[in-house]
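Q: Entry one of two.
A:
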Amino acid sequence: MSAEQTQAYHAIQIGIISQTNTDVIKAMTINYPEEAIGITRATKAFGMPVVISFTVEADGRLPNGQTLKEAIELVDNTTQNGPAYYMINCAHPICFSHVLNSEESWVARIHGVRSNASTKSHAELNECKELDSGNPVEFDEQNRALLFKLKNLNVFGGCCGTDHRHIEEVCKQCIDAFNRLKHAHRTEII
């Protein structure tokens, strides 16, 4: 769908939601920037903040072949930095960590990840006969490493294949690493 079609499609739901006590719209597993642009425009029309969460393939690119950088920059340029922030979901950290350069401004717009447990591609997961829950300890290590690439990362979660074991590992290790980074950052400012 085009940005205009996506805006019209989502405006109905967003309009209804905007009349509730909802604080923010979160659009997950977005595959292409036009979809994100349409959703962002619809949320702006109703005065609602929005979080856009892209998904990527095993090569770190969106399913349409665009880079994450191209997608985020296109949405931001087209909507005047409309989304409150961005996330990445429905992909394992090894699929996208290699494309994140903390020195690039677009990376600072990413505040959250909801990673898959499995390192398999979406195509491989579609062919699985059983759920691939990966390795919870490795899942934590790879999510924790993102703290050093994504300076504004403060939202963690699990997507396909994750369960309480994955989230417990992230909580045990990432919270400690996050607190050390926050303390080190505070020390630098003083």
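Q: Entry two of two.
A:
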Amino acid sequence: MKENDVGIEFIGRQGFDAVYEKYKNLIFQTAFLYIKEWYAAEDIMQETFLRYYIYMEHTRVENTKYWLLTTAKNITLNYIRDNSRSTVLDMEDEEEGVYGSVEGGEEIFFDKLWRKEVLEAADTILDALYRKNRRWYDAVTLVYCMEKPQKEVAACMDMSLESLQSMLYRARNWIKKNYREEFDHIHEA
């Protein structure tokens, strides 16, 4: 092992290879648990180790396993958030073909307008929840948006089922308190 001129330990190529071999399956499984997409999970694993490689050159990582898991989880949740928005837009485009064969343009217009308002309200709430409490956002996204079983989400978040349910309750109450109008609009959907 070498030390660079600022006194930070750099583990080098062999150290990185050892860390990669030791944790690559765990990081892949973590990403796959969230998204159930093989190729996306592989990409997230590679992105996680790329960030680790870059990060380890400048700073010493105290708990490598925890750092890698946290980074993989954050990359995965960002992937989910970004792709959920694009999926919704794709679904809107597909619906145009269905609506094209139906009479009553006014009904179609108001239905699409209402759907757009619901999506914007949900996006507003999720963005605010993300800023308020990241763990609440993770729990709400996994349970309500991705419809993962609560037991599976609790295990993934390393907490008991009762703690997860309590967290979801607090998050829902915070949303209702701060975004009552948007929440009611979504709930009508």
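A: Comment on entry two: The beta strands are 2-3, 9-10. The helical segments are 12-35, 38-56, 64-100, 105-132, 134-145, 150-156, 161-178, 180-188.
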